[in-house]
Amino acid sequence: MPTPVDEATDLLQTMIRNQCVNDGRPESGGEVRNAQTLGAYLAGPGVDIKQYQSHPGRGSMALRIEGSDKKAPSLLMMGHIDVVPADPNGWKRDPFCGDLIDGEIWGRGALDMLSITVTMAVAVKKLLREGWKPKGTLVFSGMADEEALGTWGAKYLVDNKWDDVKADAVLTESGEPPLPIPTKGGPKAIMVVGEKGSHWVGLKVNGTPGHGSIPYKTDNALVKAAEVVKRIANYQPKLHLDGAWREFVTAMQFEEPLASGLLSEAGFRDTLDGVPVGIARLFDASAHTTFSPNILHSGQKTNIVPDSAVIQIDIRTVPGDEGPQVRAMLREAIGDLWEQVEIMDEDSNPASASKTDAPIFKVMQSVTAKVMKGAQIVPSFTVGATDSRFFRRKGVPAYGYSVYSSNIPFGEFMTMFHGRNERIDQESLRLMLDLYEQTARAYLS
Fold it and tell me: Quick one: which of 25, 64, 226, 280 is 20 to 30 A from 202 by CA?
């Protein structure tokens, strides 16, 4: 008989191979395939499962186990079922192979976040098989479109099907693997209580067209845009070493001089040079607003000097650096070229956070200590965006909640998010299965 880890492995392989690739276009994603896969796996007599299509092919699903006590707390365990594109160049294996090699499942989405979604589903299936009758209601949902800010997934369900997904608390992606840095006070488990805001900006740089054979002193929009990109990439925003960042550093109990260096305006960036690059990237992004110019389009033909160029910038904001502050920082970064730039479009989502005094958080602390052998939860802000914000805006506390083994080195682990050679180990699946099953039992029984 297959074990829960076997079931999670098989389900994860299927969902990777379904290739629900979300490139940001409304017609991409095809998450209906993964929504139906989850529905078929979880189906059974009397099981309440609903399927949704917010747009052709953009499927989400929700399962509900109704509690016996209307006054008891309810819980939503939520995973997204779309993945970002993957260029096979540079991968050791086909990004959508789903192969199991030496205890690791390979493929796009294995880490972000199909592994969490499937272990939540397998934990729910185990409870269903047992005929579990909770006092509080449990909802499990597989959401479309998280990788493109949730318009066709969580946002759609929250706006249009709120009664199907509402709960007193939400658990979703994701925690972090153990940091390979010495700390005091025992093992730590990093869980997400908030997230930075996202502020995506399109900039148009104007120039003057001309013949490419006579480039001397031409007003080349692409050349100017390249300088704008360079300035934005080199810009260093103001550090925010108070609030959530200080709480994280304090709770981690890092040894000296790391602990004081991470809280020092003068020494912060020098301190980062002394830790592994994967950790340094995470720490850097956590301590200030970040600017990443990621797309540049320009030109119509090789022999025409371009009269315009468009830059797309991914800006992730810490609380307080939003709206006018972002504009001011962009202007400061671009400097004397600002007058030759126009903002074409902006898509802004403010930072959000949940408190750590909610009843679910106490359960998370207790269960995590059991699953991870005495580990203490360290609250953190995630540097990316998740579907949690839609629930926080409704007043519902939402947390990134998962655990991982140390089988994949931390530095390599962090490069796999939207990167190459993405995979997850089966020991991590086992830990997640225990985490979600025990949490549901403890909070809802």
Answer: 280
